[in-house]
Amino acid sequence: MTITRPAAAEVEQRTVSLTIDGQPLTVAEGTTIWTAARDAGIDIPVLCHDERYDPVGVCRMCVVDTGGRAYAAACIRPCEPGMEVATSTPEVQRSREVLAELLLVDQPPREEDPKQTTTADNELLAVADDFFITEIEDLFPGPSRGTDGSNPVIEVNHDSCILCDRCVRACDDVQGNDVIGRSGKGYSTRIAFDLNDPMGQSSCVTCGECVSACPTGALTNKAINSIPIQPKAELDAVDTVCPYCGVGCALTYYVDRERGGISFAEGRDQPGNQGRLCVKGRYGWDYASSPQRLTKPLIRVDSAYPKGPLSAATQENSTQDTDGPGRKRGAGKGGRKPGGLVPYEEVMPHFREATWEEALDLVARKLGGIYAESGSDGLAGFGSAKCSNEEAYLFQKLIRTAFHSNNVDHCTRLCHASSVAALFEGVGSGSVSTTYGDIENADVAIITGSNATANHPVASSFFKQARRNGTTIIYIDPRAGTVADHADLFLQLKPGTDVALYNGIMHEVIRLGLIDREFLSSRTSNYDELARTVAEYPPELAARITGVDVELIREVAKVWGESKAGVIYWGMGISQHTTGTDNARCLIAMCCITGNVGRPGTGLHPLRGQNNVQGASDAGLIPMFYPNYQRANETKNRVLFENAWGTELNPENGLTVTEVIKSILDGGVRGMYMLGENPFLSDPNINKVRKALSQLDFLVVQDIFLTETAEFADVVLPASSYLEKDGTYTNTDRRVQLGRKVFDPPGEARADWEIVQDIAQRLGLDWNYSAPREVFEEMVPLMPDYTNLSYDNLGSSGKLYPVQDPENSDGTVVLFDERFNTADELAHLVPAEWLPAKELPNEDYPFVLNTGRLLQHWHTGSMTRRSFALDSIAPRAEVSIHPDDAAELGLVDGEFARVSSRRGEIVLNVKVSHREARGNVFIPFHFREAAANLLTIDEIDPTGKIPEFKFCAVAIAPVGDRGSVRVGGAPQ
């Protein structure tokens, strides 16, 4: 795999010669005066101009004398041959001074200015200081235009606004959200959100890009957790990466060491995010300072046995005879409260504090005892995609070497396991073949099964920018998610009909002769079998199965087939099905039959869900793979790792997350080590998970908060958040980045890698790592894709693996330019037949449930629901339903509804939404008080072993008296 970016074509560059302040210059044609002056070391003041945005020239602060009748705005005026420019004549300077006075008179006093009293970088005041403007006696401010504090973390002060439109361009041109504009006339003109709504009630997504853009105090951050916003010079800047989705944005925390908290965050200029952040990255970091952090080891007290859930919320809908210590089924109903966090007052009395020595000795003794009695089949470990690469590596190494078991897995089993299975089968690698930023080189991009604006918001900003620059966006999903608002073509298919749709598209591509015959003949196998299969899916049949208009299917096939460069991005709407592997097989085939792999602007990209799900998978946190996807059941790989780790290893593949739950119920797995995972909420069919967790002989949970899963633990170990340790993280693009420690862990909490090592030593392993760097140095020689990487050459922005020359290259953008990673170096085309979902609607359960994420929340909510900003913006669980369905059922927006499946029921608020198709409902899975996975089915994909999160049959009905309902519970 090599870097495929071609060298830039030799283009004749025309130049322009001119003088600026008497200095002769020659610049490229089209260069603005401001840019030419800057490059020559000549400073021209600006207020509306920022190189991140297209210039508009509205503030006129940058005017220069070009000899014309009027001064020219240097930020937009291109250089011309023979032009003589004067940038700072007395007349020009006076013009700027008068403009500064006119703008300054409406500003709040310096001692009250929202920006100057916080970050102290008001650009207008800096210009005024350059002109020594102190008092303005002959001008008077106009009437106040007001303030707006409706957003929980952003303050709007219209009197500080100079109408430079930087916020408008940041919102439109960079983030692509199109929320901010102008309203009013004359002096009353001001920035407006949507139709002049308060910011907190508008469609603003609180990405904070406008705050970053604003040169004055018009848009400023509010303090979070009483940590004041201060000048950067007074704070400690720590460069690290965002802990949330797989985009892996580079950011800087500005830390108040005196108060022990973060003042604010900013994005860094890394190729993957280019300084951008979303609401989670910019404002969602305060969970780490929650007073509910675990700070001491906990051991379950004797009276809390037999084991079971400890809080009322986790006991409801139980299928067990006994729900918890001393409680019969149904006891505690009515105890559920809104708020969505594990009630410590209910759970903590069932544990006692312990020393680290006592807790670790107990863990080693119990797990070691189960291994002695039941062998490797009796134990399993769930690792975490929230932990670093080094921690994932050590965790899987512990399970494999201490217990000689491959029963080690993590959340990839619940998000992209089917994608990885199909990619390995088809192209020989589970990694993405190109980056999300490579969409800029694509003629056409298909985004399918992913509401990227919510799940990968910064990546989606690149998608939206590409569309503005001419890339055709095709969006395919059962929901009209916000990506649909930015698509050229939107296909709203029926849930579970993906294979039929893509077969229909490929049928038409082949019929039109739009296949790449040379690519097929030289770089693929099994095309004839694929062609025979899709021949049975004409667009007419695909339309009947999917509900998509037949002409739209034909149009998509034509647009895709005729593109010179096409790329496909997909999310869990593709993978989280019992047919998830088949869905991904179709996408691989769609790219291959048109030759859309291995070139800029082409390829296959399953958008990874968690911050380090790519890295955790790379590091071997998978039951059938050692690090770097080396198959665990192949002798040569096992011998390699036996030699490296100095012990015999198990030759059989281990159990996946879902298979472990079944094994527990069947009496197989008896003990578990759970690191940063919360299967009680994240796994399907919660009743079954509850029963399994209660049945375990021994469970150790290592986490930063008490989770629902921790209620079943025998020992709870207080771990570290990503803010409290060093390590590397690998994002969805294959970019390996350094995460840096910001704070020490609270109380007696420890870094996860240290805890894993402590347990390993007690189990007889000779581990003596002193820092994550040493772990990384051990990993790299065992992981060919990471070859040449080191802590020292990752730098501030990381590297895309594989990389041949890390000192001079950012790494490989496009893979498979010459060969695929399969044994025969060909792409293997695997045909798929459409199969219906395992559980279909009927009269009793007539709706299809789809689950997923919200922009403001992440995974099981243990972090985001403890973030002030994120919980303030999205505080409650809602079921989204089409207006016509709501009307027929008597459901009212904001009122309560009961949603039930064959496995249980929940009560939550109704959200009437045109984004849902008739017959479908959507519920996010972050909310424990309305746990969506209580409803979901635990059928799995036979190949990827991933659960069917995106399709189960449910019923929905209104709940009567509001006063009789507890949020997320059943009526009293």
Automatic annotation (TrEMBL):
Question: Where along the chain is composition biased (Polar residues)?
Answer: 312-322
Q: Which PROSITE patterns match?
A: 2FE2S_FER_2, 4FE4S_FER_1, 4FE4S_FER_2, 4FE4S_MOW_BIS_MGD, MOLYBDOPTERIN_PROK_2
Q: What is this protein called?
A: Formate dehydrogenase subunit alpha
Q: Which residues form the 2Fe-2S ferredoxin-type domain?
A: 14-91
Where would I find the 4Fe-4S ferredoxin-type domain in this sequence?
Answer: 152-182, 195-224
Cross-referenced SMART domains, in alphabetical order? Molybdop_Fe4S4
Q: Which domain of life is it from?
A: Bacteria
- What Pfam families does this protein map onto? Fer2_4, Fer4_Nqo3, Molybdop_Fe4S4, Molybdopterin, Molydop_binding
TM segment ranges = none
